[in-house]
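Protein of interest.
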Amino acid sequence: MNKTYPAGFDRVDEESPFLAFVAKEFKLRGTERRKELAQKIISHPFVEQLGMRVPERLAVLDSLEDLSQMGLPDLFVLKLANGWSSRGVMILERTGPGAYFDHMNLQVLDVESIVRVQDAAAASFGHQQGCWIVEELVVHTLGVGAIPFDYKFYCFDGDVGLVVQIDRNSGPVRIVLFDGSFRPLRLGRDYLLNGTTKPGTPVVPLHAPEMLWWAQRLSREVDSPFVSIDMFDSPTGPVFGEFTYSPGGTHRRMFVFSHNMLDRFDALITKTGPAVDPLAQTSLELRKSLVHPGPLAYRAWAGYAYGGGPKGAERLHGHYRQLAAECEPSDPLLGWYRLLSGIWAAIRDRAWILNRRLLTQSPAAAPAGPASQPSVEAASS
């Protein structure tokens, strides 16, 4: 534990059932089922059988020597079948015969260089012989950068306790934390970043209610009191990424939680606390019936909001507020519309506050960038 964190943040692993579980799973998976589902080559077919979309698998390779001769599309993802924490993941775009641009590391590579990097990544996981998956690149709803935003759902046997939003289109990566209903948590009150990442702007995915349902559903299938479930948001709905029983963000303290947050997670992992949100009981069919903005409007509005523009968040707030106003009091969709409207209103207010601070500060006192900007907690109605 980093001793420089202020009082009220972080604990040694032994003092938190949640942190202790994550640390133990990092060293050794607790059950054979967990060992299996931690492997993408097993988890993807399993999740697809349950009815959730997974990235299209283009190939499974024991060698990368003939990568350029395989007839792959011009843009694809290459990853280790048994890797984690994005180590070794490449988003490759063909730039010429045998040449690729890696959007993850921002460099042009030939096949020989790709092989060298991937062999080193395999060795870092202790694999003497690597196995790789080639899959489609998921088109994401936001459209900020080439790399889809990664949403990690911290699940406790059917309850979602936390959502982590990761934007890898910048360096360092940008991180935002939400509660289990996508209300943004407050940086400095609920969590701290350790200096290797920057705070981003909260963006509620277009299909957030469906993503939450799948997180609940999948977490009941993994033989574990806790699992982090990675997802992407595509224009046609959620896409599964992977199961992680020892997420690096928590274990390596990329972000640390307040004692209040750890108390909540400890209660969830020991099942001594209540379910996270009453809306969690609504069906997938009902969530699919929610009227969201069209993909183009969402892409424009949410992208504008992510860049710090209050108008984008206001458009999304207004969309859901109008739908809520049209609902009868007994309409089961009313609670979702109020929730989404309130969250986007809070993101709008956050942007107004930050922009006002930037405009009223003198040039010498102005912050260097988003890393110095605080976040605010979202309203729920």
User: Anything to note?
Assistant: The chain has two domains: 56-135, 150-372.
